[in-house]
Specification:
With about 110 residues, the protein is of the alpha+beta class. Helices cover about 30% and strands about 20% of the residues. The chain has a five-stranded antiparallel β-sheet with strand order 1-2-3-4-5, with helices on one face.
Length: about 110
C-alpha cells in the first residue's frame, strides 16, 4: 500500500503506565489466551499459580513460547533468545507479536 505514516506524541497528565490500569496476572493470562484463540491459535495452555500465570503458546508441532503473566507485566522469550517485558496496557501488542511468530512458523 502506498502512502505516508504519521507519528505524533502527546503529553500525559501523570505517570505511565498508570498503576490503576493493572489487573491480576490470572485475568491478564485469561484475556491473552482467549484473544490468541480468537485469532486462530489452537492449543494455548493456561495455568494459574500464586503470583504468576504462565501461558504456553504453540508456534509449531515442536515449538512453543511461554508468556509469564506476572503482577504488572507479561514477559516472554523473543526469537533471538532475549526476554521481552512490557506493561499490561500493551497486552494487545504481545498478542500481535505472538500471532506474527505463529504465522511465520506456519509459513503464512
Amino acid at each position: 500500500m502506498r502512502g505516508k505514516a504519521v507519528w505524533s506524541a502527546f503529553g500525559l497528565p501523570g505517570p505511565w503506565p498508570d498503576p490503576r490500569l493493572t489487573f491480576p496476572p490470572s485475568q491478564a493470562a485469561r484475556h491473552l489466551a482467549a484473544t490468541l484463540a480468537a485469532r486462530g491459535i489452537a492449543g494455548v495452555d493456561l495455568r494459574h499459580t500464586e503470583g504468576v500465570s504462565p501461558v504456553s503458546v504453540p508456534l509449531s508441532a515442536r515449538d512453543a513460547v511461554n508468556v509469564w503473566g506476572e503482577p504488572g507485566h507479561p514477559s516472554f522469550g523473543d526469537s533471538g533468545g532475549g526476554r521481552v517485558r512490557c506493561p499490561l496496557v500493551n497486552l494487545h501488542d504481545v498478542v500481535e507479536h505472538l500471532v506474527c511468530r505463529f504465522e511465520e512458523r506456519q509459513g503464512g
